[in-house]
UniProtKB/TrEMBL annotation:
Zn(2+) 2 binds at H171, D206, D269. Residues 288-443 form the Peptidase M20 dimerisation domain. The chain crosses the membrane at residues 12-30. This is Carboxypeptidase. CDD domains: M20_yscS (cd05674). GO terms for cellular component: fungal-type vacuole lumen. Zn(2+) 1 binds at D206, E241, H543. Gene3D superfamilies: 1.10.150.900, 3.30.70.360, Zn peptidases. It holds the Pfam family Peptidase_M20. InterPro entries: ArgE/DapE_CS, Bact_exopeptidase_dim_dom, Pept_M20_carboxypep, Pept_M20A, Peptidase_M20, Peptidase_M20_dimer.
């Protein structure tokens, strides 16, 4: 299992896919491959050391594709010119300001759509985008999934069975702003204030900037005269910041009914990173997986009684012992080759300046790739500042127990929030907790109920474990798929590295949080979360006060999305020729 990823990198090198690898690199890899093969056969340790593989300039990992320009030069030029024009820039900024002015907040305790009036604000969002994008809405087919989930389908000339549709997601909802916090905002959160440089407001980056960018890209493509062969779908959820049950799920169900398992070519959604500098190198970070999620509940119950006649340990004491045991057994950090962050380290090792990438990290990569457990743990320790990319986190978030000072409490309970690393599973986590808690229950002569017990015991003295919200870690999307190469080539074609860097390196990355894509796994393996701007300067205000987006970066986002659609459309031609 551990070796899968390294095999992928080699396959990438050999196959090269639909896009021709640059001549120079092809020559290099062909000319030094037989030699390497010879060495590997006779001295296996040569390759195992990973020293040559992880040296700057090495071609054997993190292969980059060249810039990919759409064949439709006319459409591309039209869109480029448009995006540079002051009139367009003014208009799209105005559209973002306008949609920010609609406070489409989603709340944890919302009732169903149609019953809870607080959903009605989403009618305003729909009305707004219809008013701003009349051409789009007269071109696409609009479907509603559970009223506020919007699906815009721009039918291609080739049926979906021959050319799978491309799907771009964004969410209409935003994290609520607490009334008490409004005064802490430099500009009111729902004013959409533009100060000439920044557009301020809740949703500016998360996720209304993305929403406007993808719909604008469609508008530009239509205006350019482009007619897609491959169907293009945009879908806008209404509850990304809460459950996804109200919109993301119904949208996914509708698309699944229409296109079936693996019926979609590629899904784009918001990323938690974007273009960013690490180890003195610019990277375009494409999240190819998400951590899992689990809320664990623990109940301890017993018979109560008067406080003058207490047991040595009541339910509060026992629960405390359990919490201590849990905190004293954190999940170990481990860098495995299944983790997209390992792919990122490989990219940094070969593309960052040699002096900027720690030698001690570089030296461990070979052994990590070969599945050597000690190296995997050592490397996680070494990268402690990024620890939660490499481990399952657990955070005891709530504790309840006791009602009265002079009564022995009958129940005590706690809730623990976990974010699962990509190389674990809900079953493994459950087993870990059961192994920790059961001995404590036994010690106190209590009944133990694990996660999947039948809960039949009528004994009031018991310790019960149960799962609340659960989501497995996302499947890791492939980086050797044609769709990923199209995406990479589009990134290189439309986006620039930061500062003085020569090249923007496309790298896999890991999303520590969850997106609407959690509902879309059945539709494609090719799920990529990426925001085509520098998110260090932008997204770090998401979910808090003073959220903003840089106008000069935002106005160019549609060029990226439009080029992606054009490039994905060109791939249809390759399929049928
Ligand atoms: C745990 O305790 C809470 C609060 O007392 C209760 O609502 C819930 O049903 C209990 N769950 C289990 C599985 O015992
Ligand atoms: Zn979001």
């Amino acid at each position: 299992m551990e070796q899968k990823q390294s095999k992928t990198a080699i396959q990438w090198l050999l196959i090269g896919g639909a896009i021709a690898i640059g001549l120079a690199s092809a020559f290099l890899s062909i000319s030094d491959n037989p030699l390497k093969a010879l060495f590997t056969e006779r001295f296996p340790s040569f390759d195992d050391s990973g020293l040559d593989k992880y040296t700057p300039g090495s071609q054997s990992v993190c292969q980059q594709v060249p810039k990919l320009s759409p064949k439709n030069e006319k459409a591309q030029q039209f869109i480029r010119d448009k995006v540079e024009s002051p009139k367009y820039q003014e208009e799209i900024i105005d559209k973002l300001s306008g949609i920010i002015r609609i406070p489409s907040e989603s709340y944890d305790e919302l009732g169903p759509i149609g019953q809870d009036e607080r959903w009605d604000i989403f009618y305003d969002v729909e009305k707004f985008i219809k008013a701003k994008y009349p051409t789009v809405f007269s071109t696409v087919k609009l479907d509603h999934a559970n009223t506020h989930g919007l699906i815009l389908t721009w039918e291609g000339s080739v049926p979906a069975s021959k050319a799978k549709p491309i799907l771009m997601l964004a969410h209409q909802d935003v994290v609520p702003v607490l009334a008490d916090n409004v005064k802490e905002w430099t500009h009111p959160p729902y004013e959409g204030h533009f100060d000439g440089e920044l557009i301020w407001g809740r949703g500016a980056t998360d996720d209304k900037g993305y929403l406007i960018s993808i719909i604008e890209s469609l508008d530009l493509l239509i205006e350019s005269g482009f007619k897609p062969k491959r169907t293009v779908i945009l879908a806008f959820g209404c509850d990304e910041e809460i459950s996804g049950e109200n919109c993301a799920k119904p949208i996914s169900n509708l698309l699944h009914d229409r296109y079936g398992d693996n019926g979609i070519y590629l899904i784009m959604d918001e990323g938690s990173v974007g273009i960013q500098k690490e180890f003195d190198q610019s990277f375009a970070m494409v999240s190819v997986a998400e951590k899992g999620y689990l809320d664990v509940g623990i109940n301890v119950t017993s018979t109560g009684g008067h406080a003058s006649n207490p047991p040595d340990h009541n339910v509060i004491g026992i629960l405390s012992e359990i919490v201590m045991a849990i905190e004293n057994s954190p999940f170990p950090g481990k860098v495995t080759s299944k983790n997209p962050m390992f792919g990122f380290l490989e990219c940094a090792a070969v593309h960052a300046p040699e002096s900027s990438f720690p030698k001690s990290v570089r030296n461990k990569l070979g052994n990590v790739a070969n599945g050597i457990s000690k190296a995997q743990q050592d490397l996680a320790r070494e990268l402690d500042n990024m620890r939660y990319y490499f481990r399952t986190s657990q955070s005891v978030g709530k504790i309840n127990g006791g009602v009265k000072i002079n009564a022995i409490p009958e129940t005590a309970s706690t809730l623990i929030n976990l974010r699962l690393s990509v190389d674990t599973s809900i079953a493994q986590i459950e087993e870990h907790y059961e192994n920790l808690v059961e001995p404590i229950a036994r010690k106190h002569r209590m009944v133990f109920e694990g996660f999947h017990s039948s809960r039949e015991s009528s004994d009031p003295r018991k310790v019960s474990l149960f799962g609340v919200d659960a989501l497995e870690p996302a499947p890791v999307s492939p980086v050797d798929a044609e769709a990923f190469k199209i995406l990479s080539g589009t990134i290189k074609h439309t986006l620039k590295p930061l500062g003085q860097d020569n090249e923007l390196i496309v790298t896999p990355y890991l999303m520590p949080a969850n997106t609407d894509t959690k509902c879309f796994w059945a539709l494609t393996k090719n799920i990529y979360r990426f925001t085509p701007i520098n998110l260090v300067d932008n997204l770090n205000r998401a979910h808090t006060t003073d959220e903003f987006i840089r106008a000069d970066e935002f106005v160019r986002e549609p060029l990226f999305f439009a080029s992606l659609v054009l490039n994905a459309d060109d791939a249809v031609e390759q399929d049928t020729s």
